[in-house]
Amino acid sequence: MKRTGLIGMAAFAVLLSACGDDNGTNGPATLPRVSNLVVTPNSNNVLSAILTLEPTNVDSARVVYWTGTGAKQHTPFVGDTGTSRMVVLGLRPGTQYNFAIEAANSHTQRTSDTVSFTTDTLPTFLSSSSFTGASPSSGGYVLTSIFDGTSAHVVAFDSAGQLAWYRSFPGAIPTEEVKQQTNGDITAVLTTSHGGEPVPGQAVAIAPDGTILRTYTAPDSSYLDGHEFWELTDSHGAYAGALFLAYTARHFDESSHGGSADSLVTGHQLIRQDASGTKSVVFDAWDHFAITDNVEPVPGQLDFDHPNAVSIAADGNYVVSWRNLDVITNIDASTGALIWTLAGPFATIASDFTITGDPLNGFSAQHSVRSLDNGNLLIFDNGTRHATQASRALEYQLDTGAHTATKVWDFTHAPPIYTSFTGSVQRLANGNTFIGWTFGRPLTATEVTSSGTTVWEGTLSVPTDQIPYRFTKIASLYGYEAP
Questions:
Q1: How confident is the model at residue 330, as a pLDDT?
Q2: How far is C-alpha 441 from the geometric centre of its chain's CA atoms?
Q3: CATH assignment of 2-118?
Q4: Mean pLDDT of 181-187
Q5: Cα separation of 224 and 216, whole Å?
Q6: 449, 445, 407: which is closest to 156 by C-alpha?
Q7: Distance of CA 298 to the CA centre of its chain
Q8: Taking a C-beta distance cutoff of 8 angstroms, is the pair 433, 393 a contact?
Q9: What is the pTM of this model?
Q10: Residue 335 or residue 6, greater confidence
Q11: Is residue 32 within 8 Å of 112, Cβ to Cβ?
Q12: Continuous H helices in 6-110
């Protein structure tokens, strides 16, 4: 690492003095001022820098930074409570940068002197990871996770395919679901579980600078499932807890089905945790489904239901995808009651809807179900039991009065890609759909318009084989913006 101290602070002080008295007695305005500006490396991420400063008369500030030949870039403005320590993200490795603070108040905006700093190089595994062929640039970042066998890495690639942000977790435990929450935290579930193994796991909430803010675990006598994790906020945007999946085990005689006379089978619970850490069961699969409802068995899989997506609908209720049951349910957030069930054509559980307009008559082994603002369901249909195994993104319009689920949009990659497990789908603010084909080869992310035109596509290139759970798009590394 290389860094320099203050540059020309004496001259800067003289300039401020010439512009007027800080108390406003000898000049037209009270001027914002920055002193003791220092830049240091971020121990969590070499593509980041930490600036510390002493602000005076500053209402808001941002960091402006540039390389010797590059255009100036800047961080978002932050309020006066956050201006003594400022984080810069998305830097390039092994690159010298210049930094200055733009400080503002109600009277004027001032720019500090400049400090310089050279970022360190990336670890070999991360420096060899990218989204190849990412074209054309569409803005934003692709958030996912990769694993090198000894450490898990939560990573964000820019739309040109280069690594822009990461947070590493040593300990040989991979991450499953990662997402940027609406409060700006990035969450990751660290576990070796596929949804049924009796192994410990934890979820962590990560600040943009890589600091661990909170850690979550499953309720006593249960295990944390890694397929979905939400942090909750109240009506004022304050932290209000979390919503996630857990599972418990029961013994069954499965000898008549080719199993052992003492088989350990797991079923899932939807868990809500409040801001104080108290956990409660919202919905328990054991109370609503039978192990014989499993129509999408997985070799060696212990859980019969396998929920893999939870979406918070516009009305606050919970939409849950159950992969091994081929059903999607709507659950009352207050009572835990089943409001409705949408079943695919291979399910044994009755459906409350007739699927119309879909030549495949439904979905199979689905993932990443999302309830859209208009009430439609956006689904990654893995297509495991379709006559031709090809995965697709799929949207249904639900009519709860007529009990119909009408296909209004779908997209199949050309050439077709079959993603037997995992997979993700995300509706963006501009109406495009971001799709992750995250199992097998190629590991591809595709952004398409409503007409099916591809506007961005990249393939994850990592030195070792990977099974990322999802690819999702985020708009900013600094905080949540609708992507």
A1: 98
A2: 22
A3: 2.60.40.10
A4: 97
A5: 9
A6: 445
A7: 26
A8: yes
A9: 0.92
A10: 335
A11: no
A12: 9-19
- Supply 169's token pair: 């977790």
Query: Which residues fall within 8 angstroms of residue 249, CB to CB, at 6 or more apart?
Result: 198, 264, 265, 266, 302
What is the mean predicted confidence (pLDDT) over 285-313? 92
- Structure tokens belonging to residue 357: 């307009």
Q: Which neighbouring-strand residues pair with 55?
A: 34
Q: What angle do CA 278, 284, 290 make, to 5 degrees?
A: 165
Q: What is the pLDDT of residues 72-125, one digit of tens each?
A: 999 999 997 778 999 999 999 999 999 999 999 999 999 999 999 999 999 999
Alpha-carbon radius of gyration of the chain: 25
The yes/no answer on whether domain 124-474 falls in CATH 3.40.1050.10 is: no
**Contact residues for 314 (Cβ-Cβ < 8 A; gap 6+):** 371, 373, 375
d(CA 181, CA 136): 27
Query: Which residues, at least 6 apart from 387, have a Cβ–Cβ distance to it below 8 Å?
Result: none
Average pLDDT for 48-68: 96
Measured CA to CA, the distance from residue 325 to residue 309 in angstroms comes to: 13
Backbone phi, then psi, for 355, in 5-degree steps? -80, 130
Structure tokens at 103: 């400080």
Q: Is 361 left (phi over 0), alpha (psi -120 to 50) or beta?
A: left
Structure tokens at 444: 């591809």
Element (H, E) at 2: strand 2-3
Q: For the chain, what percentages of helix, strand and coil (3-state, to nearest 5) are there?
A: 5, 45, 50
Domain range annotation of the chain: 2-118, 124-474
